[in-house]
Amino acid sequence: MKKIFTCLLVMLMLVMGNIFPIAALTYDESYTLAKNYFQNLSAFQSVDEIIASESVGVETDQKVIPEELLATDTASNVAKTIIVLTLHGNDPRNYNGVNYVELLESAIQSDGAVHFENENGFGSNNQIFCVDALYIVGSDKQELAADYLASMIQDNGAFTYAGGYEDLAVTGWAIEALSLVNQEKYQPTIQQAMTYILSYQKEDAGFDMYGYGADANTQACVLAGLLTYDSAGVKAGTYNQNEHNPYDVLLSFQNSDGSFWSSFTGEGQYNLLATVQGVQTIGYYYNGSVYQKAHQAYLALGEVTEIEKEPEIPVEEDQVKEDKETSSTEMQNDNQTKEESSSQKADVVQTDDSSWLIGYSLLFIGSGILLLKGRQYLE
Length: 379
Description:
single chain; two-stranded antiparallel ribbon; globular; disordered C terminus; 57% helix; mainly alpha
């Protein structure tokens, strides 16, 4: 009889455990973890880490950019160099004696394609980074490049990697780039791309092309496009499926230290690409596109200084740092306001610890009553 009574208590605990599950991270907690991860990062392994760090408001100007990361072999690598230098607080028109903006604009072809003559394997992904960089510097050729990007859309609405491989992540990037340059002008192209993306959204709100389930990389890149194009819609649940939010799906891949794991490496296993893309998208949820931040930082640089042969800091660095610190302070204030607003709008993963405490208290009281009754019965 005692065994039966014990089994009943165990069953009660299991039932109550399902009613009051283990706490999940709130959105604010997830954002804080992502920021802490990059605040504790001592050195950069890739330019994407700089972009992700700046996306969540962790300024990088006090950390060194390894020179080997600033590549000039392709136009898209020049574009990424422009992006990270601007976010880092440097002038891409005069860094170590090189004008990277002029170099990128020299790669723009008459039809708007952006690549050097000797480049191989040119695809939508390459063009996208170039369009992003041209937007950041306010180039008068940004729409010419964006026109060519829009022309690269496939009949089904997909954008592709070099080699013609359709990809949800690249399509998300394209939506972001076109939205930044001129959302109204490129609305038909964006809508076609949106239709393609949403056709691969599953019942759990994950985006999956191949039937293996959602992965952090694809989920992050698609959401980056959606948040840039329609942030209010994402936060209002426009893209939910069966009460599941696609942003919650992304956060399910976040590790306890703020990094991300990938389906390719296994649950809980750190993955660099998943981390930079996941954290960048978390930044988008709170702060908007990091390329908008870079554009404002570029405008703050003012007129270009004379190109010098000495690979030293530009003459106007003090003013740049002052402007960057002011911008950073304003952004932190904005982020605080956004975080306070976000915490008031709890989504699927947000929890209430006080309600769980009450639930567990009732559980233990009930268990005690059952135990006393059981003992009286057994005696």
